[in-house]
Automatic annotation (TrEMBL):
Protein name (record): Aromatase
Cupin type-2 domain residues: 190-254
Region (Disordered), start-end ranges: 266-288
Origin superkingdom: Bacteria
Taxon lineage: Bacteria, Bacillati, Actinomycetota, Actinomycetes, Micromonosporales
CDD domains assigned: cupin_TcmJ-like
Organism expressing this protein natively: Actinoplanes lobatus
Length: 288
């Protein structure tokens, strides 16, 4: 290898929490919706903390389609991701480091540094590729910023998120750290058929606010029954055991909100009795 090594260093600030930026930019399967240059991603191998995948670009001006295999690893403790080309193509090597820095609860700096060297027979030399990467990086980082900031303002519907039936009912977490990058709480709704309920549990870190849209609801608070009728709301304090039961003749629709967030999602909900469908696989966490 002869000549100078190529090196680029570019950063952008995004109005979104670091967890949200991290999760969205490290899910390589969604990169075609995040980058304008990628047509498809095929995951070839996936392990905890790493993924090998094929990236395929949109055709260039000459109609050529470029594709290569990369390997990516990540370390959330240091907010760092690293990638290298397995199929190097015109590069002798290409290594990329992504770092993330929390500037504020709703603001993140995302930085890409790339180190590389071109093959002697490559159609562009290292200096030319450095200029090209710098130019394209600015475009793609701006697209990512606009996309993530727009996702934070998305309207989320029942069909947009997975159904959680393990504790009873059809429960959907709609606005959450995972879906829109909320930082102080989350909300959703649960539909309960007549006689159906949500099994008893409590929240060590969060207050829960319930609002009944339709139906008739009984909420047992530490064993004490409370009736909630449509257009009425109820506070469930921290550490209070509660169970929801539809005692009406029709479907009940209950809106819930919890705040503040638990330190980690798995700490936010403590079951005190088995749910009717607890044998089902857990629904992917959408609350943090």
């Amino acid at each position: 290898m002869t000549g100078l090594l190529g090196h680029t260093d570019n950063a952008i600030e995004i109005d979104a929490p670091i967890d949200f930026v991290w999760a969205n930019t490290n899910d390589v399967r969604t990169w075609p919706t995040l980058f304008t240059e990628y047509a498809s991603v095929d995951v070839l191998d996936e392990q905890p903390g790493g993924v090998t995948f094929r990236l395929t670009m949109h055709p260039d001006e000459q109609g050529r389609v470029w594709s290569w295999v990369s390997h990516r690893t990540w370390d959330r403790d240091t907010w760092t991701a690293r990638a290298r080309r397995v199929e190097t193509g015109p590069f002798e090597f290409m290594n990329i480091t992504w770092t993330y820095e929390e500037l504020a609860p709703d603001r993140t700096r995302m930085r890409w540094t790339q180190d590389f060297h071109m093959r002697p027979d490559a159609p562009v030399d290292t200096a030319g590729m450095t200029e090209r990467i710098n130019r394209n990086t600015l475009v793609q980082q701006k697209v990512i910023r606009e996309t993530l900031e727009r996702r934070r303002q998305a309207v989320i519907g029942f069909p947009d998120v997975p159904s959680n039936t393990r504790r009873g009912g059809d429960l959907r977490t709609l606005v959450s750290p995972a879906t829109v990058g909320s930082t102080s709480g989350f909300c959703g709704a649960v539909r309960l058929a007549p006689g159906e309920g949500v099994s008893e549990h409590y929240h060590p870190y969060s207050e829960e606010y319930l609002y009944l849209v339709s139906g008739e609801l009984r909420v047992d608070l530490d064993g004490r029954p409370v009736t909630v009728r449509p257009d009425h709301a109820l506070l469930v304090p921290r550490n209070v055991r509660h169970r929801l039961t539809n005692v009406g003749a029709g479907t009940a629709l209950v809106v819930f909100q919890l705040s503040p967030l638990a330190p980690r999602p798995e700490l936010g909900h403590v079951d005190t009795e088995p749910g009717p469908n607890e044998h089902l696989a857990p629904v992917p966490v959408v609350t943090g």
